[in-house]
Amino acid sequence: MSSSSLYSINVHCNGETFESEIHGFCFKNTDTIRVTMKRNATFLHFKKRIQSFIASGNVSKMTYQNPIFFENGQCKFFPLKIRDDEDVESMFLSHEHSGMDCIELYITLQPCIPSQQSQLTDQDPAGGDAADDAQWSDELNPEAEVEVDVIDEEEEETEIQVDHILNNDDEDEAQPPPIPPTHAYIPPQHMTNMALNDDEMSDSVFYNPYVIECRNMLCKFRLAASYKKKNDSWEIASIDPPHSCVATTVEQDHRKLSTTLICRDILPLVNKDPSVKVSIIISHIQTTYNYTPSYKKAWIARTKAVEQVFGNWEDSFKELPRFLWALKTYVPGTVAILETVPAMMPDGTCATGNRIFHRLFWAFDPCIRGFAFCKPLLQIDGTWLYGKYKGTLLMAVAQDGNNNVFPIAFALVEGETAGGWGFFLRHLRTHVAPQANLCLISDRHAAIESAYNNHDNGWHDPPSTHVYCIRHIAQNFMRAIKDKNLRKKVVNAGYALTQPSFQYYRDEIRLSNEDAGRWINNIPVEQWTRAFDGGRRWGHMTTNIVECMNGVFKGIRNLPITALVRSTYYRLASMFATRGERWSAVLMSGQVFSECCMKVMKEESIKATTHAVTVFDRQRQNFSVQETMGNSDGRPNLAYAVKLHRSWCDCGKFQAFRIPCSHVIAACAYTRQDAYTHLSDVYKANTIMNVYSQSFSVLPMEDYWPPYEGDFVWHNEEMRRKKKGRPNSTRIRTEMDSTDKMIRLCSICRQPGHNKNNCPNQGASSRS
């Protein structure tokens, strides 16, 4: 909400307040006045504005009916006393998050006290009797920080407002007109001092007297001063009695340490990381000012800083169409699909030229082109936003030949619903990944399953494969069976590289618990095991690469929508520039394959030197490879069939990862073949360079952007966050996050309970 926005306030007075068990703080039998107020109003301006509408007394206390929403949807009101600028700011923020039409305010009035006017015999310089100039003042409010009473209100155009003189940050805002007097007031002695009036007449000037009191209710300190306009100076008339109060406690916070001051101080922090923790902000202010602001004050300051750096949330929706239009103009090939719903008028008719935001899909052309050179698999997942408006950020992520994460598409939807996932998968298939034989990895969310099985979304023609994350399978298993030992066997069955290994674990599960056996049999083995996937997973059993992007983009999930989309563009542009430069240098050095591939080949080549190879068919390249040395994982030494013409090895590694295993390398060495010829082209440095060969274009400054002539897009009030408290920024741990304690084995005999230093077989092995 901009600082110039107007709020409607229902001011209630002359009634009764009471506590309702259901609704909380309420009032009845009140007189109601409708007042409008600017968003950046100070406390003094706020009080004077309300006082100008009241003729029956002085405003002594103001209480805001603060709505609090609970998880069951119930709303209960709590009283919030308005006593200073911080309270006014809290009231406006609470109202913005509540979604209510008007601010409900109850005020308590003090009766007017009649007074006698001072009688002066001399004429004032303006030509009238001084006795005719009534002097007015509000009752001093002991709860206010500083209370100022204007006595002489002539020459309104030259009067200096006290909130401007003392501390007004907004010098451009037009000050409200002087509040008309509502009652007479008995001025104290220092205000009727004849010497002061004589001085006014002798100098041909007017004084505006002010009265300042101590904020401490027990202290009787009063200070009377006047501003001399001619000399631009202040003159103190009296100080009586002396300021005698002593603070009994040392406050960690300071009243002058406002949210505006904190906001100004933390702008560099928020610009670098918009999700900077409130605790870090508090520590920063402690270091800078030696005061400790409250959590609430620091949180409000961060919200203000985010709006100053990245824009207002509501205005961001209006800026979104123009930004998307600029992307399509300056980055040809960019896909940006904005789905909106009609904006309805109160009478039920559509508002022409206005739309309400519903969903957004976007993907950048360099990412779309680069995906053709990545592994033919996609991992998809969703993560929530935690800004002012609710929503879910959906992502599709791939992986290049060096195991680098490669984001390719994004979407903002209302939640992980069938409609939201259908919107994302449909445009992902149409505009980004139309190729056949793709493998889509996700959790077992019912909305994803429904969207994938919908033939209108295009994932069945051309064909593709949908498989599940093994961690989510284990989570669902734990919820149904609740057995940690069997859970581990389910994970081992999923990770098994060969069908005999899978069958071994499945039989153990079935013999231990028949219900568990039936549970895993209800899921097609092609969707959750590596032994039956035909190599389509490329060894990926989880959705870790897309879930790690949730942490990478955690900061931008706190931003307004246009700033969020803009951040994805600039982050990916930086990633392309960095990786493109790196792989260009790799090609110049003469390196042929990626580092991760070379590392695996080196490890497998060392193992291959211990294998014995038997040729069965040199023409068809069929071999039997016998392991001759013990494996570090305790497996027995076995003989494996290798069929090079079919890219097959009985161990399963060759088919799963598209990288030759030790048995394939041994067979190639026996026949003097180069094992690197059996590597997939995905692992070649030239292929990885092609992933990042397309660069992002630099967006010019906004003044050069083409005009947008489409409909206005407004924020969706249904997506506004209304739940009490800040949204969760950390995922709640579930059964999926539990880990079993690793059993330590002896490195000599591979048995638990001891180590190599006290192994009973240590001496025997050394003598042999």
UniProtKB/TrEMBL annotation:
Any one GO molecular function term: zinc ion binding
Positions with biased composition (Acidic residues): 130-141
Domain SWIM-type: 640-672
InterPro entries: MULE_transposase_dom, Znf_PMZ, Znf_SWIM
Zinc is among the record's keywords: yes
Region called Disordered, residue ranges: 117-141
Keyword annotations: Metal-binding, Zinc, Zinc-finger
Protein name: SWIM-type domain-containing protein
